[in-house]
Amino acid sequence: MARTAVLGLPRIGPERELKLGLEAYWAGSAGSAELLGTAAELRAAAWRRAAAAGIDVIPCGDFSLYDHVLDTAWALGAVPSRFGEPDRDDLDAYFALARGSAEARPLEMTKWFDTNYHYMVPELAPGQRFDPRSDHWTGPLREAAALGIAARPVLLGPYSFLRLGKGLPEPLRLLDDLVPAYERLIGELRAAGAAEVQIDEPCLVLDPGPADLDAFAEAWRALATVGVGLCLTTYFAGLQKAAIGRLGELAPDELHLDLVRAPGQLGPVLAALREEPTRLSLGVLDGRNVWAADLDAALVLLDRAAGAVGAERLTIAPSCSLLHVPYEAARERAIDPEVRPWLAFAAERLAELATLGGALEAGPERRDGLLAASRATREARRRSPSTNDPAVRERAAGLGADDYGRSRPADERRRRQRERVPLPELPTTTIGSFPQTAEIRAARRDLREGRLDEEAYERFLEARIAEVVAAQERLGLDVLVHGEAERGDMVEYFGQQLAGFAFSDGGWVQSYGSRCVKPPIIYGDVSRPGPMTVRWWRHAQSQTDRPVKGMLTGPVTILQWSFVRDDQPRQQTCVQIALAIGDEVRDLEAAGAFAIQVDEAALREGLPLQRADRDDYLRWAIDCFRLAAAPAAPETQVHTHMCYSEFNEMMEHIARLDADVLSIEASRSGMEVLDAFAGESTYPNDVGPGVYDIHSARVPETDEIERLLAIAETRIDRDRLWVNPDCGLKTRRWEEVLPALEHMVAAAHRRRAAGGQSGG
Fold first, then answer.
1. Domain 414-754 - what CATH class?
2. DSSP state of 340
3. What is the pLDDT of residues 518-563, one digit of tens each?
4. Quick check: is 695 catalytic?
5. What is the pTM (predicted TM-score) of this model?
6. Which ranges in the chain are annotated with CATH 3.20.20.210?
7. Hey, what CATH topology would domain 3-384 get?
8. Out of 44, 494, 660, 751, which residue is the most buried by the measure of CB atoms under 10 Å away?
């Protein structure tokens, strides 16, 4: 009969125990034994939960203290030389790669494919050597065995590890050196009791060419000789024809397919592997969204596969790791009782897996009984009037071409804006948020729990805003922000004021390290009942004569960082959000705002993984940004911000954003990302490359920032260059922020004095 499996489990703990343990360790209030003890408890609880749900194949080695890609690099000994030769039992040395140290900048961080999870980018060097250690996997394998659970270790595969790294033009040339390290790791897992090993190769869905497939096949053949069953796992998109053909030749012991993102790949895979002994792992439950599954639709795929190869050759699974969803919807009390039954977090996904396992080989009557609850939930959601607002749909349907863009060209807007507010060369600003201190978090908690009334809370926020504005004036920044003390999260804050959103109490997921986010849940049509930010902007602007930016989150980012309804196209939901944000732009401008920032931090991460799908996404995503910014008059300066983006293949689309100022993460790459922006014909508007990394606790010196600015000036004309940090400052402490910004402003002043000359 078919078996059930999970590719990965949530890590942070139902109450974010890992976050608390990490931050206590970094603060010096807890030791390594306490942190490692917390990690062990979380692993054991996750295994027990999956076992209690009746899951047949339970993962181990997927847990991480920071990031699984970092863990792989650390275990392989792929540590950049600037970190010296660290003791790999030293937790501080491990965390230095992620967070930096006084002596060394950290590894780059970027998005894990098209998710909101961040991974640490491995750095590879010519002649790279690998020194593998298996304890990251053998330790948890033995822990699970002690609980009576025969877990399956999860390894990021060698092909994807190299493809995800940086530093070499042809990283796959390292496979000859890397594959023996993997053979050793897998051999040690076999010796430790592993009956099979999951090898994640998500990069196989990224349009691999013939040479890539040749390299992968050679590596896989070597790993297959170790003598343990290997499950080849792909996800986030479908395998293309050439890759399916190659896998048909390789006939892995098991092949996992993401049938949520790419159900169309099932037919070609069945044809390629029908005569082979390969077991098929079918990802029919969404590992990245929170809606209760259509189990009938999942069974259509499972029945088709069972008819072709037999149920005994099937594994039923989520599409990908459950890292990307919260723990348990049943615990939620803040969500509307009508909406809550429509949701499935990790615990509910496990239950759905068990139901599918029982239903696959059940007769019609028993299957109907098993699926009755799922069918009732789906029908209730379909019929609910709370998901449909006729006024919103009528407004979206009435949009025309003129609604998607500013009324005047960029050069005319630049002239009018500079006449309205003259700014110095290399103007300095920040991305928006300032530290979310313990005092701010406590006040928000006191409001929520009734110890502080709304009026007192608003007075508290006004005082914090005044302090932030005064601090920026003392630092000498040119364009200020209000600091966003009122916002716990840049998406949640807006969702709480928009119709069509629901919010969980405990729906946390990991973004990176100890950073967790609680994505809003978009269940209905979106609209804006009233102004969301104008009051706080007015208060900030009243404190200063310098311009204060209005701060908004853009429609694509709100979409990408939410759990989005799956009963209509994402584009349709994004248009609704864009209209709501455009209403806020209009109100900020009417209040007198000179500059309005509409952040699209997630625009790049939403890019489809396969090239054939990208132009359509970029067309509607950028249209939605333009729709949101369109109400701004020519004299109003529209800024936007994008995180962790590679722009080379999408510059024509980025230019079509037509933002007056685009700020981007650039410091960790040493300004490499600006290569795509060089020359006015490539990108005509102003650019603010980040000059220091806000994800690290280290404070850059003025000389370091000045060097980065000098590099930036070789790519961007200084007349179009802004000076800002990489991202918002909410996660940093004031003790780090103030000196870093002081150094940033000093570096900008030095470059102004240098008058465009190349400098240190």
1. alpha beta
2. G
3. 999 999 999 999 999 999 999 999 999 999 999 999 999 999 999 9
4. yes
5. 0.91
6. 3-384, 414-754
7. TIM Barrel (3.20.20)
8. 494
